[in-house]
Amino acid sequence: MRAFKAFNADMSCTLGRGKYQYAEGMTFTESKAQAHEYGFHCAEYILDCLKYYSASKDTVICPVEAQGDIDEDGKDTKISCTILKVGQRLTWEEVVLEAIRYLIKHPKYQDPQIKTEEGRSNGAYCIVRGRSPIAAGVNGTVLGMIQENSRGKVQAVAIYKVNGKNIKPGRYYNIDGKEVKDAEKGGTEKASKAGPHKQDKKPRSHKVQKD
After folding, report:
1. Alpha carbon of residue 149 to chain centroid
2. Strand 207-208 to strand 154-161: parallel, antiparallel, or no bridges (unpaired)?
3. Cα radius of gyration (the chain)
4. Taking 90 as the threshold, does the pLDDT of residue 1 lie above it?
5. How far apart are CA 112 and CA 36, in angstroms?
6. Cα separation of 111 and 101, whole Å?
7. DSSP line for 149-167
8. How many angstroms separate the CA atoms of 146 and 154, rounded?
9. How far apart are CA 63 and CA 44, in angstroms?
10. Is the distance from CB of 39 to CB of 30 less than 8 angstroms?
């Protein structure tokens, strides 16, 4: 089963019995698995990892393969397993992309970390979904946007990184990477509350900013 796991900056995690050291590209085994108690913990939805770790540069997130005995948490996508193969660490752009992929595949999944129509973050990422999503952050923040039509169907996605150049800190940007002024921002909010469009836009492909 493909999942994700968060680590401290040194690739360690704290277990009930103490600190456990991991490494990229290695496979680890435990004798039994029980969510919140034993085994290796990870999550199918990548942002569920951040319920236990901060969204900062000191947190490492890797894709993992959960094997052996698997025990589900039952509250979110967290699981525990007896065999864990750790992959290569992800960039925050990749973390945001993985989160968006999951949300598209599971449109009814509720995550309070995802903002509606407008979002601002002082951390590593900010993901916003809605009719006319806009997002802002500080230097280094990855902005992810999911544009949906009146029926909630995804029309386009975009990922940008606040770099101080074309995407500046503290300013809002729309899904096309264009800065949204205060006056335009008010218009965006009104548009999001308006009735359904007469004709929905055709879906657009992924748009990822290149530095």
Report:
1. 21
2. parallel
3. 19
4. yes
5. 22
6. 14
7. -TTS-EEEEEEEE--SSSS
8. 7
9. 9
10. yes
Burial-class residue 68 by CB neighbours within 10 Å (0-12, 13-18, 19+): middle
Q: What is the pLDDT of residue 8?
A: 95
Residue range 51-109, pLDDT digits in tens:
889 998 899 999 999 999 999 877 889 999 999 999 999 999 999 999 999 999 998 88
- C-beta atoms surrounding 12 within 10 Å: 14
Opening angle at CA 138, ends 184 and 143, nearest 5: 65
pLDDT per position as a tens digit, 3-60: 999 999 999 997 656 788 999 999 999 888 877 777 899 999 999 999 889 998 899 9
Would you say 44 and 102 are in contact if contact means Cβ atoms under 8 Å apart? yes
Residue type for 182, please?
Answer: D
Residue 146 pairs with which residues in a beta bridge?
129, 157
Q: Which helix (H) or strand (E) holds 102?
A: helix 92-105
Q: Which residue has the tokens 């169907």?
A: 153
Task: In whole angstroms, give the CA distance from residue 107 to residue 125.
Answer: 20
**For residue 35, what pLDDT is reported?**
77
